[in-house]
Amino acid sequence: MSLVGLLEGLNGAGVRYVVVGGVAANAHGSARITSDVDVCYDPEPENRNRLATRLAAWHAYLRGVQPGLPFAMDGRTLRDTPVMTLVTDEGDLDVMDRVAGVGEFPAVEASSLETSVLGVPVRVLSLDALIAAKRATGRRRDHEALLELEALREERRRRRL
Amino acid sequence: MQRSDLTLGQLATAVGATPRWVLNTLTRLGVPRRYAEPLARRLALARTLAEHAGTPLSDAWALAGRALKEADPHRTWRHESPNGAVVLSVDMPRFLTSYGARLALALNHYGERRRGRRPRRRGTAVERARAWGIDTTLLTSALSRTPELRLRTLHENMEALRSLRENLRRREPGRPA
Description:
Chain A is α+β, with helices and mostly antiparallel strands.
């Protein structure tokens, strides 16, 4: 159960995805610890099925929902539910096929950068796109994260990073 | 699952409707506004029946109550009209999967938005962050590292936190050491 295990699993299954949210923010310098991984995936049917198969193998279940409710993890469920908050054998994972403020997967992928963690390649959402996403959600709990990301962007520009 | 602490927004997210639809429907049906999980589940099924089977909402509400009471959640529920001419079948696992996914979203506050006008911007972004109480020295420190190193640190932090939580859980009363 780890960030690296999760990314290795997704890469190994051939899933096309971009890491968004707190992990991407950390890649850009955020100091906020996050315990879940947010992933935006390509909703093209084959990719969706690959992701569903991977999630089913990880015993994905709905986070916060009492166990026992029937839950079918397959491509159809992903197609019908654009955002899912899950708990898996590899940790908490949120999957979505679009990012508010950025757009659908092609726009998300175009706004991402390639990096790696412990040698595992991963694409993460850019800082500008993360800020746009936080602004678009407009959630109270995101306000502090938004302030931090804006400060980071300003500091990076000042340093010409 | 007996949750009675849903807000109207959460209940509407779980149902897959707008808060206005929920309020109007509860008024039409004469159902008290107690925003609990069982109400969300029944409303979600009633809405599905009304939308996809064209059942009038009051009949859909009654059918949903019956289905949720009688049905095996792991099987398809069938309901015949009195003369057997019409058979309604509800794929309960499929319905509960999509309902559960929306409920999880609602519980994780995905739909919750900040109300009112955004506060006026004063000062630079770093000044605003500092004024909010964010330790901006952590940001400057992080910027001195590469993205790879930052992700590696996050990975190690997540691992350490997970291990810490596991250890604390093992020490909880009633759990074997």
